[in-house]
Amino acid sequence: MKTPISGPRVQPRPLETPAAPPPRNEVKPQAPVARGDARDVSRFDVGTPQKPVVALTPPVAPQGTQVAPGSYPSVADVKAISSIQDPVARNYAITQGYSDLSNALGQMLGKENANWSTFATWASKQAGVSIRNEDMPKFLTDALQKAGDLAGPLKKVDDVLRKVGLPALPLGDIAAAGKEALDNVSGSIAEGNQFVFNEVGQEFARFIETFQGDTSYDAAKAQKYLDGFAKDKPVLKEAFAHYTKAMFEKDPNKKAELMLLANDKIGLHEQTQLQGFVEKALNSPVHDTFRNVLKQSIESGINGLPFPARLAGQAALKTGLVDAALGPVVDATASVFRRLATEHMMKLAVPGGALKLGNDLPPPAGMESTLFPPHLRSIENPELRALLGKLDSSPDSLKGTAAKDWSKLDQRMDYIIDLFRTRQSDPHLFDAPFGKTGTTYPLPATQPRAN
Description:
single chain, mainly alpha
């Protein structure tokens, strides 16, 4: 399948071009905004507009780069971080770990192209918002108060409760049920965050440890390294093979395509592995959770009534009167919860805002007409063209990229490959996720580890 050309491709410079060519469409990366200890402040949640993103003029990546020991997590460090039991602390460490792996790889391959770990940094930080359930209980309560389709069912339940001497069902109990349901969703997100980092993070660490300091491509060394991949991970193996070639590719067009090909393949592997976690999160037993929590609240109130009102209340429970009245409330609250949880989950962080995955991917600021950075405006790498032809439902366009059903792998990938292609040259992706740098490894053993 031939991928149409959506814009002029930047031609590679001849070999005799001076080492420091004049800048072309260059925007220098902005210094991170000082935020103090901004552990729970995401750059994606701020409303301050950034300057339009314009692709950097890609210099030839520095060769023979030595990455400072302790500046990125080793294979052992990745395993240790993945074994942290506290999901919130683990997510912070995973997000920072991705950032440090991204920067280490950027030193080796150049930072004119983001690598997969660069994107994973911000996806992990966004996952942390769901893992921590930030503001969701109040968010749910406020939404329930505004839900017109809940007013009728709630009135019927309140009428039943008044007949047995109980007050109206408080929204706080419904919010508590929502929090329990959200905990189930967050647990699945945390498990997926842990699983992917433990698997892919180790491979990034192994790549850095193997090739840092190299000054030229060594086919035998690359093959020996690739032989270390498990046989059931062929796509992941292919992706890192592309990174080994991109490291010494001097043609900026070919290099950008190799980087995108590697990023897309890791994305495909990762999303395939995450399928079970995504389905578990989206298909959590919301109805059962709401019904159980609300019914327990009512039963507790009835058991606390004085005799003989307690007997009347218990009779209402036995006859099914309470269950019948509670059913429509459970249906309505579960519907509101699913809508909010899906919106809460289906966000993807990029510098300047959080993208809603249910909407078509917007072009980066400054690329409204071209959509893609200069070295990715047309695709010539045959393997990359074939992969995009398979995964991209609208080649060279962002129309139809909205993932209406995040449980569908093809919809997720349709969105992700265009996200990678449009943002690969955004220098802000290498910013520190928590507004600070200076992490050293191994991390202090302050968190309980799984056995």
